[in-house]
Amino acid sequence: MAPEHDGLPAAEREVDVSGPVAELLKSVAPRVLTRLKLALRVFNLLPFPWRFNRLDLGAREDFLRRMESSRFGLFHELLVMAKLFSTLGYTVLPEVEERIGVETSCRLADGSLPQPAGSLGDTTPPAGGEECDVVIVGSGAGGAAAATTLAEAGLDVIVLEAGGGYNRDTYPSDPLDAIATLYRDAGLTIAEGRPPIPVPVARTVGGTTVINSGTCFRAPDPVLEEWQRRYGIEWATDLAPDFAESEEFLRVTPLDPERMGRNGQLAMEGASALGVSSGPISRNAGSCVQCSSCPYGCKIDAKRGMNVSYLPRAVAAGARIRAGVEAREILVEDGRAAGVRCFVAGAEGNGHPAPYTVRARRATIVAGGALGTPELLLRSRLGGDQVGRNLHIHPACWVGARYEEDVRGWEGVMQSYYVDEWEPERVLLEATFTPLPFGGAWLQGTGREHQEAMLEFGRIGSIGVQLQDLSTGRVGIGRDGSLKASYGLTREDTKAITFGIARAAEVHFAAGATEVYPNIARAGVLKPNQLAEFEATEFKPSELRLEAFHPLGTARMAADPREGVCGPDGSVNGVENLYVADASLFPGAVGVNPMMTIIGFAKRVAAAVAEAEA
Ligand SMILES: Cc1cc2nc3c(=O)[nH]c(=O)nc-3n(C[C@H](O)[C@H](O)[C@H](O)COP(=O)(O)OP(=O)(O)OC[C@H]3O[C@@H](n4cnc5c(N)ncnc54)[C@H](O)[C@@H]3O)c2cc1C
Ligand code: SF4
Questions:
Q1: How confident is the model at residue 614 (pLDDT cuts 50, 70, 90)?
Q2: Number of the ligand closest to the Cα of 409
Q3: Is the bond preceding 594 in cis, omega lying within 30 degrees of 0?
């Protein structure tokens, strides 16, 4: 996939790419691994009657080019998969980074190091189990905020987290190692469908906030008004004080345009030339200026992920955090949730998981994220037939562009500038510079052409198109017992994403880009005079190449129990003392990056739990 080219080493012949990728795949679930193996086998057989791995270099390149221009969706899916893995394994090699000129080093504007975070205490679970007032499953945005509210209300809280705990002293320095360590299934949680859409989530103390981009938005008022009116969530329009409190605590500040990096500045210049509504993104990372590491954990902990903000605050108020603990079943006694039955990974020193049970006197709160929460509710057979349904993901598309000047996006903040002009069309644009191991796979071409594009990575600007989706999916448990997610992108949403890609292209061109990569194989490369033709073309859902970072809605809140899983106080229908406090609660897609809204919802649920009679 990556031949020797202009100083770039030949994959496999000169540098080992498949070894580290195989190592990474050791941390994915058997279900995902089986599907990947099958896909790779099919990929290898496609040049029938030959085998891809037995073709010579020239024949391989020809075949990859034919795959790229093919009209068959399956060819594109397999090609994208092969490009993703080969780029991931290849671009993390120091010699490749050096040749392309990518350097990553996080720092604050004044060169200082942020104050160290408070302690998380002893996160080792005691043998057998323990007791508390409230047990919370999951330590991400929702779980951490709920833990803080409850601990500060004087309740005895335990937070259980399946992943391990890390901070700036301990995040793995190798990107592949970081992905394997910090993400669930090495980031390969995929919503199956046409197209299949990767929906990565974290599995670490602090949840997905540890590897996210630090972008902080309040939920738009029209969305909250709709949730209040349509789903009976009376307090949804009163969240302003909750947002303000969290923003202050997380030190949320808008980026300084001077310091956000050239990728954001180009989006700003393009938006200003078009006269559209836009602005610098507000983030929870103070004055950090350099990046490309957000998805691997912030090397200086400038980003106030939950592991260095709400969780230490909860611990200071008396909460206990237990890492490496996977909750398997909610205990129910006389119709009331009474705690959680769990396993501690490899706790017995022999690699076998050890049983561990937490009994909760007052409440059990599930905050495992919109994939983990329905998984636990389904395993426990609780919550009714709406559990796992109504999955929204904010499907997103990378739209790159070539500039005649150096962009060197890795020298700026990863997610830096938004354009919200097209919110009525459900589209939000965000200048997002995806690090090379992920963004490299979206570059044009295969073989030598792709290598050429990688050498030009420093001149690529990128904008993410994010859709407030009406399409839905479902989270379930597969026959083999593992997590299964599916998603059906509708034609209406496909059109809306295509509209968003065209708007991103417009912003790029207005900022001086010479060509735009709409990331749809049939559309090829766009020049400024081809935009109208692009917009007039109807694409099938399967032609889009998408990712998604915001799973939501799989245990939704609704006043009418027939419409959701939880009531407006977060309590799960049909069981006393059981609550949800995370992204699963949203009745629909919020349309902006959801972390702050999740925190707001979790604080409301926690306040309701604290007020509920003992
Ligand atoms: C790459 C990326 C970038 C993003 N950037 C942004 C951004 O800039 N701004 C923004 O607003 N949002 C962003 N998001 C999304 C945001 O981080 C999430 O929406 C948010 O963290 C979700 O909060 P949560 O509490 O629902 O779940 P999570 O934060 O995912 O936390 C859930 C936790 O529960 C644990 N868990 C699950 N099941 C169990 C179990 N059975 N037992 C024990 N533990 C369990 C998981 O391991 C996990 O740590 C991004 C997401 C990704 C993937
Ligand atoms: S928040 Fe992201 S961009 Fe800023 S220093 Fe940390 S990893 Fe780098």
A1: low
A2: 2
A3: no
- Asked whether the CA dihedral 564, 568, 571, 574 is positive or negative, the reply is negative
- Mutate which of 123, 185, 208, 293 to test ligand 1's pocket (most atoms within 8 Å of Cβ)? 208
Q: Which ligand is nearest to the CA of 341?
A: 1
Residue with CA closest to ligand 2 atom 1? 303
What backbone torsions phi and psi does residue 400 show, to the nearest 5 degrees?
A: -95, 165
Q: Supply the DSSP symbol for 303.
A: S
At 453-495, the pLDDT tens digits run 999 999 999 999 999 999 999 999 998 899 999 999 999 999 9
Alpha carbon of 286 to ligand 2 centroid (Å): 9
pLDDT at 354: 94
| CA 414 to ligand 2 centroid distance, Å | 7
Residue nearest to atom 2 of ligand 1 (CA): 212
Is 261 touching ligand 2 by the criterion CB < 6 Å? no
Round the average pLDDT of the chain to a whole number and report it: 94
Domain range 128-190+200-214+217-250+296-388+558-611, CATH class:
alpha beta
- Within 8 A by CB and 6+ apart from 485, the residues are 189, 190, 191, 192, 199, 371, 391, 473, 474, 475, 476, 551
Select from 48, 61, 51, 67 the least CA-distant residue to 1.
61
Per-residue pLDDT band for 76 (boundaries 50, 70, 90) equals confident
Q: From the CB of 589, is ligand 1 less than 6 Å away? A: no
Phi, psi of 425 (to 5 degrees): -90, 10
For residues 406 and 32, the model is more confident at: 406
CB 233 within 8 A of CB 587: yes
Q: Which-ligand-closest: CA of 135? A: 1
Q: Which atom of ligand 2 is nearest to the CA of 297?
A: 7
User: Ligand 2, atom 3: nearest CA belongs to which residue?
Assistant: 291
Q: Which residues contact 206 (CB under 8 A, 6 or more apart)?
A: 139, 140, 144, 165, 305, 306, 307, 308, 311
73 band by pLDDT with thresholds 50, 70 and 90: confident
Q: Would you list the domain boundaries of the chain?
A: 1-100, 128-190+200-214+217-250+296-388+558-611, 252-283+395-467+490-545
Class of domain 252-283+395-467+490-545: alpha beta
Asked if residue 595 has its Cβ within 6 Å of ligand 1, the reply is: yes
Give the SS3 label for residue 358.
Answer: strand
Could you tell me the distance, in angstroms and rounded to a whole number, from the CA of residue 216 to the centre of ligand 2?
Answer: 14
293 lines ligand 2 (CB under 6 A): yes
The band of 347, judged by pLDDT with boundaries at 50, 70 and 90, is low
DSSP E strands in 420-557: the ranges are 427-432, 460-467, 472-477, 483-488, 515-517, 547-548
Q: Let me know if 5 is a catalytic residue.
A: no
Cβ of 507 less than 6 Å from ligand 2: no
Query: What is the β-pairing status of strands 460-467 and 395-402?
Result: antiparallel
